[in-house]
Amino acid sequence: MNKKFLSAVGLLILSLMLISSVAVAEEDLELVSERGSHTEAWKTLMDNFEQETGTSLNITQYPYSDYRSQLMLNFTGGQKNYDVPYISMLWYPSFARGGYLKPLNEIVERNPELKEDMPGLENAYWEDGNLYFIPYMNELGGVLYRKDLFNDPEEKKNFKEQYGYELQPPETLQQYKDIAEFFHRPPDLYGVSLMGQRSIFLATHFMNRLWARGGELLDDDYKPAFNNEKGIEALKEVKEMFGYASDASKAHDFQDALTEFTNGKSAMAELWTTAMFHANDEENSDIVGDASFTGFPRPEEAKDEKRPMLYISWGFSVAESTDNPEAAMEWIEHVIEKEQFIEAAPKGTIPTRLSALEDSELKSELPWIEPFQEALENGIPTPMFPLIPEGSTIVNQEIASLVSLYLTGEKSAQEALSEAENAIYEILEENNYYE
Amino acid sequence: MPGLAYLGIVFAIPLIYAIGITFFDWNLLRPDLGIKFVGLKNYIDILTEVQTWNTIGRTLYFVIGAVGIELILGTAIALLLNRDFPGTDIVSSVVLAPFMMAPIVVGFVWRFLLNRTFGPLVHLFSSLGLDFLTSPPIFANGDLVIPAIITMDVWQFTPFVVLVVLAGLKSLSTQYYEAAEVDGASRWQMFWYITLPLLKPTLLVAAVIRTLTALRIFDTIMVTTQGGPGYSSEVLSFFAYRLGFESYEMGSAGTVGIIILTLALIFTLFYIKIVGVESE
User: Using the beta-carbon criterion (under 8 Å), do B247 and A397 form an inter-chain contact?
Assistant: First the structure.
């Protein structure tokens, strides 16, 4: 009886070992992402990867508004639900600080060409010298404009008569203002679509102008560095530009501004590059084929200088808790291959590799890729937040509020800047940045 | 005993935990700084901020405004619906419809209605010459944004008050009215001296529930204004959200939560006192 029992237990253990070895051989990777166009783009590469490697990929997607909290709670709760989080570049500092991500240096060691070919990579090396994030999608803050209006002979003639120079995509801040003023013909057409709701989007209008003037949010010692003449000028210019926007712009978020532009109600829109996908979406846009993109303008005197330019990137990271780091890195290396980028890009992403952006077929399919690439090469890709865990709080709360308070007239430019400066200083001082 | 255990699990433990974290400096973004006991520092920091008091003031403005209008309007509509007239059922269903919508949907509906470019209400205001309601857009107008949110809340939750008061009216004995009629009382006198006093417990329930739910308004603000312009529509619950889920400062967010809870207790005690004193 005893022998029989022991044999049965032995058989059971053997079976379990066999089953588990099969499971290990197959390898599962849990991917997690937001619901967005670039995720949809790389999702199309999953089947091929599974067939080629035998690794099984599962994906969980959250709405953007909820995604960061879900990840944060997952990490802080010690859960091991995800191997490969697809995240915003702005989030990795807080996750890295918590020790939730694995360094990915070996991906670059195995693919050294990435250093030259992937401009956004520089921002992905954290303060400890490790790489925790591989940029997959990138875009710039800039200006979308209506080619049909800009190329109209009558408009060109009238513009030249009025301003004394050729109508062309704005290269300088003065040109940007002139063109917005020229096309501002309410209620049929507005000069520019802007995003006035108190949010990160509104904050970018200020930061675009601050950076264009050579200013910065924080200096090298993490001290607020925007409460100065450049900050005041930037803030005043934001308000001035709202004079060439629709009244509705004062309450717009990103989607509202984009809709106004794609409905043909404005000549320009101060948005981000991925908005071009929507402008060319035949189902929802009235200006298909009529829009293009240009990088954010600079002051006249800095026209040919490389200045910081709003850089937004999403990419892959690997959870420290993963049981399959090799498979996770293999997946990342697969999707960032030039050919994979070219295949996925038209489905909703903008490749982070210059070599993929150079592809002639991609350029003919997405003609605005060329001006995007030009802007990328002529600017310094600068993340929307300072890459510290508090970056999101600084921009989302303090900078967005300061611009909003100034626009509504509740505070003067100086008062709003000083208030935000003090608040940011306090946040960083409390978190030991100034010891 | 099972009831006590249930209350302990779903109420007491989370409450104790929530109060507990307010005494700690705990930032989820900075696990390297650890969780530090700071005593009353979170309370002192938050309560000495002018911004907090402005937010409390704004919250009270919203709660008192919204709940006050809902109680008056809800009672009036319930009195109308309590009469028999053709189509009562249809009218009741239509009146109650907004209450069945999720607050986030209400936010989207009103965002559309008040859209500066294609919102039907904006066109109506323009045609009536009410330009101060259209430019700047209501959700970007610091003076009008709270009244607009009150309007949205009244639109959605007045039906709840109607429902509660209507149930109260149906349960009132007709004897009082018959006696009053014999004494020659007018309709107004019957309402003021019979209906209203008898409805007080019902109105108390409606007021308490509506106050508690109004204090935690979040969805509609998130969808329409994100607390702006400036801080014009930032109420306590949104402030707590920003601290908790944008800055991940759990101690500070918990402290704002306790302030909301305290306000809820004050309101409830106030209502009970009014009804209690009058019934003595």
Answer: yes
